[in-house]
Amino acid sequence: MTLTSSLIKERSLLGLKDLSRSEIESLINRAAYWEASTDKVTPILKDRFVANMFFENSTRTRFSFEMAEKRLGAEVLNFAAAASSVEKGESIYDTVRTLESMGIDAGVIRLKPIGVLAELAEKVGVPLVNAGDGNNEHPTQALLDLYTMKKEFGSLNGLRVSIIGDIKHSRVARSNLWALRKFGAIVKLCAPEVMKAPELESDAPYVTMEEALKADVVMMLRVQLERHATGMLKSAEQYRLQYGLTEERAAGLASHTIIMHPAPVNRNVEIDDAVVESPKSRIFPQMTNGVPIRMAVMERAMRL
Ligand code: CP
């Protein structure tokens, strides 16, 4: 079936900034449906083909998408840039067009550069789902984060969420911030000066670490060393002492406060080893919640 360009647009998920609150709500509600399903596989996407195209490394997102797609009965093609003709210099556009020419019905894509995805989505004839583009957006991560918070607190309205750490390089922070604001959550940011994104200040204030810890949700971010200019992180221990969720700081959180982190985690840098699997931590439940969220997203992208 050839989709019209407006249907392709409707089925794609490039970010949450421009997605309506009701669309986000319907994805979250559908994820709850899939989570409650007792069937491991419900083949509503039988005979549908999806390519997971990762031009940047991933563990959680890639496998979570694959799990979601297989639970819906889709045929899954996994593409890894390091084992492809990208190594011979083939462009992202040519790679996606190649898979489209072979007959995929949708593509999941992770990219390093920002600003490429929207242009790509205009040019290809299948829905695209953003699995993380540079420091721009990581919509399915934020959807699973919102789902995790909603399961915990029932409503996001008035929920105090602090996002702490390497905001500058974080697509997770941006997608969460833009989505949470649509639901009336009170978002605060906390970061060392060199890891702040000043352009986000109009959406959420930067506060001290002490202030940030007075929240219902403390979302820690990974220090993204691979995106840093040289010398940005002077000392891991210094960072831990100033901005890390140490055991001592975690012990001082309110009894109802939960700790989140998109992972992978730099243990004993932004979060202490003992805190990662502590009772307040929802880090592994976040990964669990990623599967039904991505089932909802892939159903929206591909169901006939
Ligand atoms: N949270 C997240 O995006 O993890 P991966 O990079 O392993 O996919």
CATH topology of the largest domain: Rossmann fold
The low-pLDDT segments are none
- List ligands, each type once: phosphoric acid mono(formamide)ester
SS-derived structural category: alpha/beta
Q: In percent, how helical is the residue content?
A: 25-40%
CATH superfamily of the largest domain: Aspartate/ornithine carbamoyltransferase
Number of helices: 12
Describe the structure.
The protein is an alpha/beta fold and 304 residues long. It folds into two domains: 5-138 and 288-302, 3-Layer(aba) Sandwich (Rossmann fold); 140-283, Rossmann fold, CATH 3.40.50. The chain is 39% helix and 13% strand. It has helices spanning 5-11, 21-36, 60-71, 92-101, 117-123, 139-153, 171-182, 209-212, 236-243, 247-251, 273-276, 283-302; strands spanning 49-54, 75-80, 106-111, 128-133, 160-164, 186-190, 217-220, 258-260. The strands form two sheets. It has a four-stranded parallel beta sheet, sandwiched between helices. Strands 6-5-7-8 form a four-stranded parallel beta sheet, with helices on one face. The radius of gyration is 19 Å and the shape is globular. Phosphoric acid mono(formamide)ester is lined by residues 58-62, 132, 141, 262-264.
